[in-house]
């Protein structure tokens, strides 16, 4: 039997990998499997240093798991993959289905370039592959809740078995790992399949049962921290779903809330599948008329937001966490996004791009549509008038200031009563911490006026 080529992309693992199972079966009992990763300039170039470094770590782990067999090549996949097929004599190319905007175009180009060599798509990075769920009238879902009901009714496949003793092809020339990145002090999570399993095991055993309530408290270590591993596929959501269900029973609420987050990920991927333009444009076309500020003053406000010096502690803590860990707590992501769009009146796309450059878990569908949800331009039926009050959000979800004090050292000695509005403290603002750059109440009125103008247009 000719070798089968498995092209890894967002599935950098060996367990629960249907495309790998298909490749092993295609190779037959005596055939070998050629594991390949293509460093695509179209993806590597726009990625920020944290994602590049995490990817590098995942590839190092995958190479170790395959006994050094992973072949790394750089260039346009439409050239690199057919060249490897000719070089190795592979009889088929196996991949996980890619529902992304660029991924669909890239795979179509590779398939055309392969000619008669089968290009086999098996599985996807999602619990339910984008495009599979439709409303009764055959149209896509536009709102999360009915999508979630359909997702739960459909169910998720059981995890795929891990192949035993894969006969990896040997001796295929390979490039070195991509270059290590200058992270400028950012502390990165461990990468690779084993690291992903460790993160999941720790969360499942120690924090999952309290997830339904504690997940909104940024000062507590209560979230899963699985987003980067889901982004690069060191874990599959199907695995998480199956193992989480084992803990249901008396803990159904916590498990249901966690599964709900997996469904959000699938929902946004489904939206992008049906509406690829929403990666750059508002899901709600009416909101294209929304007026955002531009010019030097807007750029100065953006810089203050990006550097965590807005004078609003919970916002500044979130942005400093982004620089420190290439990650931001989910509740705080919403707070800092709302502040950029509705207090500073800046285009949500500026914030989404900044996040995408700095997050280790930067995922196009989740990032762009999460920003649109906050900006009031997306799928959520609740309109633009949802404006987060940064002071109240801090007081409600970080009441003792633990999160703020961790990331904003200027406020570590401020009493709890004043930590989220330090400008009201008897001694005034601590040295080195700025006064608020805007008045939230006033900017809220401006945001609502602009929204009303769009509605009235």
Portion of residues within helices:
40-55%
Question: Beta-sheet strand percentage?
Answer: 5-15%
Order of helices and strands: EHEHHEHEHEHHHHHHHHHHHHHH
Distance between the termini: 65 Å
CATH architecture of the largest domain: Orthogonal Bundle
Q: How many domains?
A: 3
Multimeric organization: single chain
Most strands sheet: 5 strands, parallel
CATH homologous superfamily annotation of the largest domain: DNA Cyclobutane Dipyrimidine Photolyase, subunit A, domain 3
CATH class wording of the largest domain: Mainly Alpha
CATH domain topology of the largest domain? DNA Cyclobutane Dipyrimidine Photolyase, subunit A, domain 3
Beta strands, count: 5
> Which regions contain 5 or more consecutive residues with pLDDT less than 50?
none
Helix/strand/pairing category: mainly alpha
In short:
By secondary structure, this protein is mainly α.
Q: Could you explain the architecture of this structure?
A:
- The protein has 457 residues and is mostly helical.
- The protein has three domains: 4-124, HUPs (Rossmann fold, 3-Layer(aba) Sandwich), CATH 3.40.50; 193-274, Serine Threonine Protein Phosphatase 5, Tetratricopeptide repeat (Alpha Horseshoe); 285-452, DNA Cyclobutane Dipyrimidine Photolyase, subunit A, domain 3 (Orthogonal Bundle), CATH 1.10.579.
- It has helices at 18-27, 41-44, 49-65, 77-88, 101-114, 144-154, 193-206, 211-214, 227-232, 237-245, 252-274, 296-307, 313-325, 330-343, 348-358, 364-375, 390-397, 402-407, 440-456; strands at residues 4-8, 33-39, 71-74, 92-95, 119-121.
